[in-house]
Structure formats: structure tokens, C-alpha cells
Amino acid sequence: MFNFFDKLKSTVSKTAQSLVGNVVGAVSEEEEFSEFVLDDMEDLLISADLGVNFASELVDKLRKQNKIKPSQVKEFLRNEFLKTLEFAGSPKLNYKDGELNIYFIAGVNGAGKTTLIGKLAYKFKQEGKKVLIAAGDTFRAAAEEQADIWSKRSGADIVRRDKADPASVVYEAIQKARKENYDVILVDTAGRLQNKYNLMEELSKIKNVIDKNAPNELRESILVIDANTGQNGLQQAQVFKDCVNLTCVALTKLDGSAKGAIVLAIAKELCLPVKLVGVGEKMEDLQDFNSQEFINALFI
Length: 300
Ligand SMILES: Nc1nc2c(ncn2[C@@H]2O[C@H](COP(=O)(O)OP(=O)(O)OP(=O)(O)O)[C@@H](O)[C@H]2O)c(=O)[nH]1
Ligand SMILES: [Mg+2]
What we know:
The chain is α/β, with parallel strands linked by helices. The protein has helices spanning 4-11, 13-27, 35-47, 52-63, 73-87, 113-126, 143-154, 166-179, 196-213, 231-243, 262-270, 291-298, and strands spanning 101-106, 131-136, 157-159, 184-189, 218-226, 248-252, 274-278, 286-288. An 8-stranded mixed β-sheet has the order 3-2-4-1-5-6-7-8, with helices on both faces. Helix 5 packs across helix 11. The radius of gyration is 21 Å and the shape is elongated. The protein starts with a helix and ends with a helix. The relative contact order is 0.18. The model has no long low-confidence stretch (mean pLDDT 92). Residues 113-114, 137, 143, 188 line the site of magnesium ion.
């Protein structure tokens, strides 16, 4: 049977090869951690998109010890990766029963924000929740249309106002949700405006509307990152983190990506937990992130 773990295993198989298989293959037969071996290992970790800092920290740890042998490198990596994920925080999406739960979704264009909204809408609808999408991307011509299609597909309701100020769309969504007892608001945002400054301004404005009108109901500020962007994704994340107070990351397009090590780099460098993983374009292709299972799938 094709169960959840099998699916995850095939999803991260390319990452497992580049991050674990290649390193273990190059190191485990060596007699000792010579400078040559350590350099090689560092290069492999970096090229698997673990991030320069994390890679050199790991190699440094090995350099400064003499207990762990090259034959144990797999166990060493496994422990370090798991520790890093656990340190970044619980991967469980925050939700409070009986209250309004607002999810603010941000990310660069094409990262998969609107698709994630569709998937989350579907997930919450399946759980019997009353769900409202706030179509806060009023910049791109087809964006609201796309949000509308996802709302119909998932059975969620939507607030959309052609070319309106996104902050006012979100304000309206909050009022409606209060009046009509919604459980969930999913706030879509634009990924591209005339320039990065405008985008960050707009995101702050939307965020301020939520902070002012529903400070206790903002459950998560989610940054959507396309797994294929690798280290670029990390730089993007920093810019967003400086602008809006992020609480977690949703990693999309992990299906087929060899750069899933970005999960670890995000945890290490930004100390943000990955909570959701997109593994395809369909409504059902969303998984809750689970550190232990992710590590098990990588180290099979
Ligand atoms: N394979 C795969 N494709 C995905 C996934 N998530 C999104 N996509 C695809 O990525 C493309 C962009 O997705 P959108 O949801 O429109 O991205 P966005 O961030 O809303 O883009 P903008 O609104 O332009 O900023 C679409 O073709 C999606 O089908 C995923 O988990 N796996
Ligand atoms: Mg979009």
C-alpha cells in the first residue's frame, strides 16, 4: 500500500541522495576525518543546499572531536539534523477551537501562496470548519480569479474586491468573519508589485490591519517558499522576516526537488519551523510537516 511514509520517501528521495547518500558515500569508508575528507564533506553539504554556515558548523564539530569515526557519519548527521529541526520549534500548525483563526500568507511571486490557500481551505473544510478566503492580491490581473477558483473547488467563501486596497479587503473579511461566525480566514497576498519596497509596504499594511483588528486571532504568519529556490529562498525569507513577524514556513514543490535540505537551512539560519509541505498541484497535496518522519525518510 502507498502510505504517507512511502509518499514522503519518494518526495524527498532526490534530497536524500544529495544530502545523505553522497556525503555518506564519500566519507564513511575513510580512516579518519582528515582535512581533505572534511573539505570534501563541506562541499557536498553546501551543494546539497544545506547552507554555508550550517555546513561549516557541522564540519567544525567533527574537526574538534575524536570520538565519532567516519563510519558513523550517517548517525552524526541524523542527530544533528533532528536536533536542529526540533530546536526551531513545534511543526504543529496553531489552531484554536471555537475561535476565529487567521492565517496570513506571504512569499515571492510563484512560490505557491494561492495554491497553499486552496489546499488549506480544503483541509479545513474537510474538518467541518467555516472558511473564508480574503483575496488580498489585488495587484495581478488574474489573481483574484485564481483565488475564486480555489474557493469554489474547496467549498470556502471569499471576499474579493477588484483592484481594491488589499488592506481593506482583509478588513472587510475580518468584519464578515466576526458577524457570520467563521472559524478560519486565509489571507492571500501579492508576490510581486512594482518593486520590493512596495511589496513590503503593502504586506506591512495588511499585517497592521490584522494586528489592530484581530490581534488575538492571528494564528500564523506563514512564509511560502518554493523548495527549488534553494539558498535564494533563505535570502527571501530574511527580507520577509524583517518586514512581517513570521511564525513559520510552508515549503512548496518538494515533490521532485533535490533541494529539500532548505528545510534544515531554514530551521538553522532563521529558527523558523517548517509546518506545511506542498507535494503537488492538487488540493490534497498538502502534508503536515513532521520532523521525525522527515528525518526517517531522508535516512532510510
Ligand atoms: N509541483 C508542485 N507545484 C506547485 C505546488 N504548489 C504550487 N505549485 C504550482 O506553482 C505555480 C504557482 O503557484 P501559485 O499558487 O499561483 O503561486 P503564488 O505564490 O500565488 O504566485 P503569485 O500570486 O503570482 O505571487 C502553479 O502552477 C502551482 O500549480 C506544489 O507543492 N508542487
Ligand atoms: Mg497568488
